[in-house]
Structures are given as structure tokens and as C-alpha cells.
Design brief:
The complex is a heterodimer of chains A (807) and B (436). In chain A, the strands form 8 sheets. Chain A has a 7-stranded mixed β-sheet with strand order 14-13-24-23-22-15-16, covered by helices on one side. The longest helix of chain A has 19 residues, at 289-307. Among the domains of chain A are: 1-92, Ubiquitin-like (UB roll), CATH 3.10.20; 212-268, N-terminal domain of TfIIb (Single Sheet); 367-470 and 482-520, Dimethylsulfoxide Reductase, domain 2; 697-795, Barwin-like endoglucanases, CATH 2.40.40.20. Helix content of chain A is 27%, strand content 18%. Chain A has 807 residues and is α/β, with parallel strands linked by helices. Chain B has 17 helices and 12 strands. Chain B has helices at residues 21-26, 31-38, 43-53, 65-71, 95-102, 104-118, 132-147, 178-185, 214-226, 228-234, 265-271, 296-299, 306-312, 330-344, 350-370, 374-386, 394-419; strands spanning 81-86, 122-127, 152-155, 160-168, 209-213, 242-249, 255-260, 263-264, 281-285, 294-295, 303-304, 320-325. A 5-stranded mixed β-sheet of chain B has the order 3-4-2-1-5. Chain B has a 5-stranded mixed β-sheet with strand order 7-6-12-9-10, with helices on both faces. Chain B has a two-stranded antiparallel ribbon with strand order 8-11. In chain B, α14 runs antiparallel to α15 (350-370). Chain B starts with 20 loop residues before the first helix and ends in a 17-residue tail after the last helix. Classes of the chains: A alpha/beta (807), B alpha/beta (436). The A-B interface holds A 41-47, 49, 56-58, 60, 63, 65, 82, 85-86, 88-90, 92-93, 122-123, 125-126, 128, 147-148, 166-174 and B 172, 174, 189, 194, 196, 342-351, 353-358, 361-362, 365, 378, 385, 388-391. The structure holds flavin mononucleotide (FMN), iron/sulfur cluster (SF4) (2 copies) and FE2/S2 (inorganic) cluster (FES).
Amino acid sequence: MLNIEIDGKVVEVEHGSTIIDAADQLGIAIPRFCYHKKLSVAANCRMCLVQVEKFNKPLPACATPVADGMKIFTRSKAAVEAQQSVMEFLLINHPLDCPICDQGGECDLQDIAMAYGAPASRYTEEKRVVINKNIGPLVATDMTRCIQCTRCVRFLKEVGGMMELGLINRGEHAEITAYVDKSVDSELSGNIIDLCPVGALTSKPFRYTARSWELVRRPSIAPHDGLGSQIEVHIKDGKVLRVLPREKETINECWLSDRDRFSYEGLNSPDRLKVPMIKHHGEWHETDWKTALEFAGGHLKEIVGTHGSDELGVLISPNSTMEEAHLATKFAHGLGSDNVDYRLRHTDFRHDGKRLGVIWMGCNIPDVQEMDRILVIGSNLRNEHPLLAQRIRRAVANGAELSVVNPLDDDPLIPIKHKAICSPNDMVNVLSQILKAVSGMERLSLCLPKSLSDLLEGVRVWDNSQAIALSLTGHGETMDLISPRSAVFLGNISQHHPRYTEIFSLAEAISSLCGATFGVLSAGANSVGANLVGAMPKAGGLNARTMLESPRKAYVLVNVEPELDCHNAALAKQAIEQAECVVALTAYKSEALEDATVLLPITPFTETSGTFMSMEGRVQSFTAVTKPLGEARPGWKVLRVLGNVAGLHGFEFDSSEEVKDEIFGGEKPSAVVWRTLNNNLRELIDVEIKVKLDSDLQRVGEIPQFQSDAIVRRSPPLQKTKQVTKAVLAGIHPEQLTKLGINEGEKILVKQGTGSAILEAKADIHVPHGCVRIPGAIAATASLGDLLGEIYIERIPATAPQEEVSA
Amino acid sequence: MTATQTLVCLRTAGQADPASLETYLKLGGYAQLKRLVTEKVKATEIISQVKLSGLRGRGGAGFPTGLKWSFMPRYFDGTKYLVCNTDEGEPGTFKDRDIIRYNPHQLIEGMAIAAYTLGARVGYNYIHGEIWQDYEIFEAALDEARQAGYLGENLFGTGFSFDLHAVHGYGAYICGEETALIESIEGKKGQPRFKPPFPASYGVFGKPTNVNNTESYTSIPWIMEHGGQAFQELGVANSGGTKIFSISGHVEKPGNYEVNMGISFAELLALAGGVWKGRQLKAVIPGGPSTAVLPASAIIGATMDYDGLSKAGSSLGAGSMIVMDETTCMVKALKRLSYFFFEESCGQCTPCREGTGWLYRVIKRIVDGQGRMEDLDLLTDVSSNISGRTICALGDAAATPVLSFIKHFRPEFEYYIQHGRSMVEDGVAVEEVAYA
Ligand SMILES: Cc1cc2nc3c(=O)[nH]c(=O)nc-3n(C[C@H](O)[C@H](O)[C@H](O)COP(=O)(O)O)c2cc1C
Ligand code: SF4
Ligand code: SF4
Ligand code: FES
């Protein structure tokens, strides 16, 4: 520790701290623009100049390491003169357009100018004008306002993983720009809006809609992935106008993914369902709540009464709150049905009845950054968990090694040490190889159970599997770690895999052999919470797949658009189509719900209270930040009344807190969580190394990040991004294309089960041989079957009329 | 009393085929490298000779070379680098160009000795992009040296290896700043890094790196041959050895002159044939545009060494002496200089990016006849606000001419502002300009 003095206050600071760290520690405000605690130090704005004893020049506080006994003056005449002069320089070319600038009211330059600026300018020459840039649908630019602090540049390079912006040209001609004809496509791009200290980068969707001081700010939790990012929702006249991160170092730090930041535009979609609706003779009719609920409750009861309770299936979106999931489950149980599930995009449930607890990520979010070795299995990290990807990126930047086993070779913008890119079906084989390689290592004395070692007998270990095993166990190029902090994570692709159970089992075995953390990076905002409340079949009921395979007569859907949210779109569509009664609790009117019977308008997360449990097991409750739109009501209330209408007991709740209390049995949530999180399986699962498939081709059906749920799908700015507009619908390796005799850009017929679609074939070097990348959760592919499964491709004879897919 | 040149760095001047290996060998070239390496002379010994020589960095800052060398970490697990700065891009500076054009092997030998001393395995010579032919001469010399076994693996069978590469820039002045130069070598945009860390701990590719000017390295073989003491004795206290002065402007014989440090200004001017056309001397920028201008009266009695020029109110810089006769309009001259710094600022840090443009525009406005009396104080103030507040010394370099021109020639500026015309062009006599 070092002792220094700032403005007469003595403080003890750590070795290697800078003056600005020390001042921040003391609460002494040093003005700054380019410095940001999460970015490398550029020291270019010079706003933070301070006077230091024994130095004849002022020094930048952000870049000057403290030395023992240093005496620093941040408000002395010399310091203030330096700061004022920098302020004057910054303002000479800055346009005075604050009245029409969106940054107005929350502008660092404005604020600091109030303290350090002069009332009038001495600059009478011509001002600089910088040509504006279009960097995409999310971030608006006004480059004349830029003060060249390079925060945006450093963010995209260091946190985003790709230098999508740069400072080109010299001197006064220096300007921030993207590559020629390129936009900023990072999935974290919105953060540069927050980082920009001036109004050069602002939010395009929010632009000109409100002044910052008119906004009411309310805390909430991001509802699109398992991270549980803390957000602040900004509201004017009851309408959500923007979403910003709340700083939470252990979760989202000060960042937010674009999905979490810009999805709110979907909340104000014209699709929002404002009144209950009932279908009579194929026509939709608006109705009142009482009629709708009595109709729904009565109809469901009637079907259960006549055909048996087993004819009821309940499907719950993993983005529903714990309260909604709990009540929906309770409702099913109340009517005697065990057919409940939230795992809509899963298809392999062989582990049901064998898990020892609630599946989670196996560690806390910040731990990821402390890992030495990470193996990610079946995940397109940037797509699925943008902010977690960013943590892994920084772990790797600090020396960690990342290995992946994946059916897609998409660039995570993280240097990958070893990778095994293979078809989905081969993933099991590769994992067996890694397990064999790990089990063959001398120091790992743990014995495998006989069943597994027998199984591994005939497995031949490929070089990259061996390399992954070596890395995971701590071996390195220059140094071997005796006790590495390692982790094995399963991503969304693994969870959606037809052989998830085998993948899970093998990954668990690999982790336990090498002492690695083992976890599942769950997709939904509340996957772990829905697991905890038990929104799954318990006593032999039907799961999310069998419920559709053996169609039921009645369904209750909670926040579900069946053909977009389920693993097998065609199956989901057929099941809903044939059902006698489908009660959909939904925030949106939807083509996917055309075949429903009753639509009950429930509110999205901003208009209800509730609880999400993140993938690290963090229980986070939130309250409504705006009033419900139209007649829409919070989901938990609707389910409560539905229970009442159906004459069920135990539905007497006055608040969502009461529901939460019931879930946790009145205990402290964290205690319950602590007890229940457990990724171990009761017994080993049978693994089959080589499974023969009929088709030569397998579909790799990812869920694109801006299609993951109903809200995101309705956010116009997100739908305008390149990720969506330039999405590849049928990606095939160029060599595979040649083999199939298909031309790049040609329309092809793809078939899965009874479904088919006509899609444009695109050469895609990131897809392995024997595979076709065809995303799910979009209309164009909603007629197809399993996300990951066999698929057939045919050329369309040139003479046949090419018809577009009807979605 | 006519002084003569002392050819240390320009040793091959006057020889036929001066740049060839043959010529250099004939003059005893590479003997020092061979001796030091084969006799395994200790690094500490070499460094103490360099310290004794009083050699100071010839790139402009005048930092003692021996001291700089002692900052390089002795033990380092990885590659250490050696960098030579031949990026001279400041107007009036053209000495390093003649070194690589006429005496490239002495630079190579000097660098190889430095590499041996500092344990650097790889070296780069970064050459200004606008002297392409000279760059090619240097490349050819490198080839010769490699083939003759003065560069490469296992030199003289001793196990000492040194690879030297030439890198050419694209003409940006800022790439002469050592950390911008390093960025440029790494393939990035040439922008100065914040210091500390200094190159000795974090240089090329983040590895310990020693950066010296061309003339600094080229002095080394002579020092090794004759000893540090002898080099020191060529010059005066605090300024050992010889210095190449690049003399340009209003003289009869512009060019490079290598002379003993401490030579009087008058002698040096005489070497260059005196002020041309028999005109009167008005002002001199003794060390290049980043050094302060001096009126004739202030420089006439000065000696040309670090202390001498500092006493006269300027500095030695890189020894780029720009001579101005009585016909020079100081306002217009300043406009030209300010334009240079305005265009060459890298734009990274606020005071320099914004300030150099401000200075230039105000001076241009004055030259355009739109000046205001307050402009002079404004220029002084803006310059002082740039000085000492930037990432690299270009900020100070831009401020210095403005401050010194206005300080010494204020009446000329006032006249220009009042009349909207140049005093010189109006024929108002130079003697009437009050010396501040
Ligand atoms: C704007 C600027 C330009 C510079 N240009 C050169 C140059 O062209 N050549 C040079 O040797 N040093 C130049 N320098 C100085 C170098 O940064 C560095 O101090 C020098 O190369 C060190 O070598 P020395 O110690 O041998 O002088 C420049 C410095 C600044 C700030
Ligand atoms: S755009 Fe904003 S963040 Fe980027 S350099 Fe300019 S002022 Fe800084
Ligand atoms: S002083 Fe000028 S040249 Fe040097 S870093 Fe700053 S802007 Fe660039
Ligand atoms: S905050 Fe220190 S220089 Fe910008």
C-alpha cells in the first residue's frame, strides 16, 4: 500500500493505482472524458490534468500511477487553469446545438463545461464540421459533436471483440468512423451510446422522443436471457421510451446487450393485445374479461371432465415469471394434469427423473472471468449470451484458454485455443473422445464406472479432442497448471440437442474427472426459476415434446407463440390446430395463435410484478414500471382468476409476493436456492457413441438472438439490424453445395418430416460438412420440424414455379 | 578564422562510392563491432564509454545516450528490440538522410554494437517515407552487411545474432515521435503512446526497446574506436563530439556540415558561405522549427551546443538551422510553420488537435489582413495552454514558434495587424523593429 495526499487528504491506496483511482476512492471529483474504468487508458482528452508536487507540468490523473508520498492538487490554481484550458479547446469546435441534442441534460461535456467553461468563447474562427456516418439502425451519429475521446473505439475493440470503429486521419481532420460501407454490428453496440460523453452517439430509436429530464426512471430486470441483467426503464406518459443498464458489477457490470436495450420497442408494438378475444365459428370477437375467463375456465374443465385430465397440456415460456410458471403449473395440477413444461425448445428429456436438483450454470457470473480453462459445448456464445461472451473474452485476454465443441464455426470474437466443429450428431462422439483422453491422464486418479469405461473402449481419440482434454486439465504451451480453474458449459445448442442427455452426461463426467465447474447456460430469463417451481412433468406426465407428438384436446399457453417458440415448429402448429380448446395467455396478437380459442391479454414484464431466477440462481423480483396497456392484466392475476373460475383451491392470492412466498415456502429464497441447485445426475445415462442417421444431412437450427421471444421479434430497430436482414436462411458449406449440385443463391426445397420450405441456399464456410444451417423462431422456417435433426434437400426443377414459403 | 568539418558520422564523405561496404571497410569499418563481439567486451564497459563520450540523443531531445542504454533491462525473458529513428520529417532537417545515403554501414555497425550491448535480437530502422531512393540505398547496404556476415545469425562464430530490417514510413512527421514510430512499426496508425511506460520497458510489440536517432547510433563506432574521452573532447562540456548541422534558408551554401560541438555561430554560418546575396541576417531558428527562433542579435555571439543555445534562449534540437535574411516577413514565416504543425498533429489529444488549428487560423487571418490586436495575446495564451499539456512533445513544438516569433518580433506583427500588410514588403527597415 502507498500513502499519498490529495487536496490535503491523506489516503492509502494500492500499488499500481492511478491518481484518478485514488481520487475516486476519496470521492474527489476529477473531470474526465476519455477515462473509463472498464476500458484501457488513452489519456487523450487531457481533461483530468492535475498538479503534482515536484512536477513542473500538470499530469493526467487517469494515466499517472501514484508513488509513495505523492502530493496531488486537483483544485489548485495550476490544476484548474489546465482543466479550464482543455475545456476551452474542447468547446471551440463543438457545435452549440444542445437544445436539439439528445444528450442534453445527461451530457458530460455540458456538465463539466458548467464547472470549467467560460461564459463566452474566444474562438472566432470557422468551426469544424464532420460528415455524419450511418452505422446501423441502433446508434445515431452526429459526428461533428465528437470529442475524439475514443471510448467507443476502445469499447468495441476491447469489450466487443472487434474494432468496428476507428479514428482515421490526422489532427483536426481526425474522425471516428466505421470501415468503409460497414455498420457497427456488435451485439453490444448500444453501450457506445452510454459511453459517448457527448451527443455524437445517441440511440436511434429513442432519438427526439423526449428530453432526459422528462423521463421517469424505474428499475427492472432484463427478460431475454439467463443473465438477469439489471436495467432501468425510462418512461414518459406511461410509455417505455428507452432502457439503460443499471450498474451491477457482478451481473451485467455497466453494460447491456442490444437485445436487452432495444427490445422495449416491441412493448409498444401495434400487435399488443388490449382486450380478451374469443373465437366463434372461426371469427375472432373482442370480449370482456369475465366472459373470456368463464369461457376459458369452463371449456377447459369440460374437456378435462369428458376426456380426462390427461387431455390438458400446459406450455409455459421460459421467459415467464416464476409466479406465472408456478400458477400455471398449479392450475394444471389442480385440474389433475401432469402435462406441464417450460422447456419448449428442448427435445430430449431422457434425464427427467434422474436429476438431483435444479440445473444452473454451476458458478457465479464473475467466476467465469477467473477461469483458466473453459470448454463451451454447443453454443454460439455471442448470439446466446452476449454479456457472458464478453466475460469469457476478457478471461481469454487475461490468459485463459477457450475450447469449443460446436456444430457451427461462427467467430465468437474470442481467440479459441482448440475447437472441434462437427455435425450435431458427432458431438457425442467428440465428447466421448475428450472423456477418454481426460480419463487416460495419470494424475486424474478418479476411476470411471465400468459402464463408461467399457463404452470408451473402442473410441479413437482425435487430435483436437486430445488437445481440448489437455487444455482443460491445465496443460499449456509454456506452463502446466497443477490446479487450473476450469469450467465446462453447455449452451443453447446442447440443450436443444436431440441427444442432450448424453451430452449432459459426458460433460458432467469430463468435468468431474478434471475437477471443473460444470454448468448449463440456460436460454430463458427464468429457465432456472421455472425448473425450481417444478414446471415440468413430475409423475410420468407428458413433456414439451410428447405433449405435441401426442396431441391433446386442450392446451394452455403462457407467453408462447407455438411455432416460433417450440423445438419442432410443424409439430407445434399441428397440435394446436387440432386441439378443441387452446387458451393463450399472451401479450400479443399473433399469427402463431390464429388457431387458439381464447386470447387472454397478459402484460409483458414492464407491466407486471414478478420474479426471474437467473442462470446463476439469483432470484430477482421486480415491480411493474408502467400501467397495463388497455385491458391487459398481469399473468399471475389472470392465472389466479382462472383457477378461481375453474373452482380450484389455493388460488387466493392478493399479490405476486404472496405467490412468491408460496414458491419459497416462506423461506429466504437464497436458502432454498442454495439447497436445490445441483447439476448431478442420479445415475449415468446410456451413451451410444455412433448413431446412424438416415439422411446425409442434419439441420443446425439456431435461435437467432433477435428472434428469441415474442417481445424481441416485435422490436422494429432490432429487426432492422444486419443480423436479421442479412440472415442466412439455408447455409451450406461451399464444398457441400458443389457436392449437392446446388448453386449459391439458388432456391432449394428443404424437407423435414411432413414439413417443407423453400429457402435460398447460401455458401457458409462456418457450417460443417453434412449440415445445413437453418435458423428457427422465424416465419420462413416455421413449417419445418426439429431444430436439430435430419433434413432432406432437393433442387427445384427449373420449370416448376418457385413459390415462396407460406409462413 | 575558418573552422573545418570533423567527419565522424559523415566519415565517407568525399570518397568514391561512399555508401559501399568496400569503402567503409577501407576506412576501418566494422572493426569495432568485430573486436567487441569476439573479445566479448562487457556491456557495462561499453555503456560506460558511451557515458564518458557525452553523446546526447541527436533526435532533438538531447537525452544522454549512455544513460538511456542503461535503462534497458539486462535480463529479460523474450526478445528485446533496437529501433533507429530515421524518420526526420521536421522542415529543415536532412542530416539522417545523408547518413543513410552516404554512410549506411556506419549506422549498421553502430546499431549492431548497440544490439550486442543491450542484448537486442532484432532491430528496425524506420525511414521517412519521402526519401525512397535513400531507403533503397539503405536496403542495399543491409544486404551487403548480411552477406558479409555483419548481420544475421551467429556473427563471427560467437553466438551473437542480430537481424536488422529497414521499415519505411509514409511521410507523417508524427511517426518520428518514438512511440508513434513504434506503433507504426507494429502496423498500426502512428499515434504517440502515453509515457510512462517508456520504450525501454514497453516498446515494439510491448517488449523492451531502445530507440535512438540515426546520428546517435552512427557516432558509436567512432566512440568505440577512439574512446569516450576522445569523443567528449571533440566538443565542449555537456555536449560531447561532433554534430551535423543541416543549414538551410538564406545562405550561400546550404547543406549538412559536421562540426565540433561548441563551434561559434559565426564560424558555422561562414562554413555555409554566409548570408546569401550579401544581405543582412535577420533571424535564425537554430535547431529546427520546434526550437525557438532567435533574432540575429541573440544568436550572433552564441556557441552551437546544448548549453550555448539554451543560454541564447533556444535549443540545439536536431541541429536544423534555418537562416532568415532581412527580406523575411516573420508573420508569413510563422504562418507557414504553424500550418505544418496543424497538418501534422496526430489529432489524438485535445490541446494539440484543437489548439494547432486555432493558432494557424488566427495567424492566417492576420496574414489575410483581418488581424486584431488582441490576437497577439490570444496566440500567446493558446500556445501556453498547449505547452506541457499534451501526450507528446508535438504540442510544445507547435507552441514554441508562436511564442518565440511574437516575443521577438511583436512590432512586426503589430504593424501587419494595423496595416493589413507586411512591414518587410512595405520596405520599413529591419533596424526599426524593436528587439524585445
Ligand atoms: C513530434 C516529434 C517528432 C520527432 N521526430 C523525430 C525524428 O524525426 N527523428 C528523431 O530521431 N527523433 C524524433 N523525435 C524524437 C524521438 O521521439 C526520440 O526522442 C528520439 O528518436 C530518441 O533518439 P535520441 O535519444 O538518439 O535522440 C521526435 C519527437 C517528436 C515529439
Ligand atoms: S463518438 Fe463519442 S465516444 Fe466515440 S470518440 Fe467521439 S466523443 Fe468519444
Ligand atoms: S501532442 Fe499532438 S501529435 Fe502529440 S499525441 Fe497529442 S495530438 Fe498527437
Ligand atoms: S480522462 Fe485523463 S486524459 Fe482523458
